[in-house]
Amino acid sequence: MVLVLDLGSSSTRALLYDEHAQLQGKAIARQPFEFRAGADGRSEDDPHAALTRVEAVIDEALSGAQTAKPPITAIGISAYACSLLCLDERGAPLTPVFTYADTRAAEDARALRRELDEMATLQRTGCRIRANYWPARLAWLKRAQPDVFSRARWFVSLTDYLSLKLFGQLRAGISTSSWTGMIDRQTGDWDDVWIARLGITRDQLPPVAQDGQALRGLAGRYASRWPALREAACYPPLGDGAAANIGSGCVDDSRIAITIGSTAALRVVVSSQKSVASSQTTEHEIRNTQHAIRNTQYATRNTQDATRLPRVPPALWLYRVDHARNLIGGATTEGGNVFAWLKATLNLPDSNALEAELSAMRPDGHGLTVLPMFGGERSPGFADDARATLHGLSFDTTPAAIARACMESIAFRLALIHDAISEMRQIAGHSALIASGGALLGSATWRQIIADVAGVPVQVCDEPEATSRGAALLALHQSGILPNLADLPARLGRTHEPDASRHALYRAAMQRQAELYQMLVGQSSA
Fold first, then answer.
1. Closest CA to 158 of 240, 241, 83
2. Which CATH number fits domain 331-520: 3.40.50.720, 3.40.50.11810, 3.30.420.40, 3.40.50.150?
């Protein structure tokens, strides 16, 4: 059996899977919560409360497990990505958990972009210089809370903190660490350039585990509290996007995962072309090597290894599933949240009537052009300050027409991400899109729009818990029980085939959107 901890952005859950990655029972231990948000852009969680939630769901999951079931031999973890907190010498939190949605480092990100080459940083780390990644957040912390920054013994993710509390060892996973924007793609370890620039040392960052390197032996009171887990191996955690890909069967570049929940993303798994090893650079060398020299070294190394490491297009990011697999993709700020805004703002009919009306409309028959960036733009243009625009309204424009135009406009933004993925030489351009996420699964019309816009089939993923299933699959794989991730394929459902004539209409509409984007947004992401 595998126990999976799913650390989501709205709930903490524990689930049990068997060796075939089948969810056991209908009951899922769940503790809901909300991030603390503020008008200043803060988005935080309480690390003590996060640990209490984990304890509660494990208690509940283990109490519901029947003694006749096989023993729990592995623990897998998936988590919302790019969290940060500071720990003191004793491992006690000095700060809340700063989440990916915290925007207080936006000005620090802009300052770093003015100083450094963002595209070189993207190729080195797989991430751009943005407020949600660690470099800008650490720069903000150093500026806004210098006493805390100077007292910090460790800078860690939430999953690193939990490994310290539960197992008594501080250890990071390559997947969750890659989401920080501070992992060197060449070494699979912390990036020397950012370490030197941010004024921190390597030993302030948790060691990055190798694939299959598990933690065993619960610490302190947990050993007696959870005897069923005493012999279980806890494998390195996964970012939730990576877990969702694996759990939905998108384990290689033959399939691309598309998810639309509140926001949206496209992601594809691509095998690494070379093995990685931990960096042996000493703290002394980090402190004393000039930044300009390091940039030259990395530029030379990247040129030499260009045939082995995929080049990351500006529209995309590159994270990791594990040391053997890259996760390439892009995400948008808009998705089901735009549809929720439309339903709250416009006089739309009920869901069934609306779906029927939307389905009956001609592609781009409304004559509207929409930029759907209500909360700024992530991929593909990364214009943080962009805002939504609706162009072409007339007296006969209906609420449903606006809704359809917004759905198509989001599909256009996702198609740009898909185009960037398909242009990479490692990716097959005909890869099917595997659909998940409540907003996308709730609308067959939206799935057909995306198939027609992208020009590839869109197939529904019928796995009810793709993210936690992905964590279970990788734990089984790293434990040696599952030789290949593809050996346990995901259940798939209905397929939407693209229509060539509708594809041509949509691509013309995409050009209108591109012209409006260039006119109103341009280079505002600089």
1. 83
2. 3.30.420.40
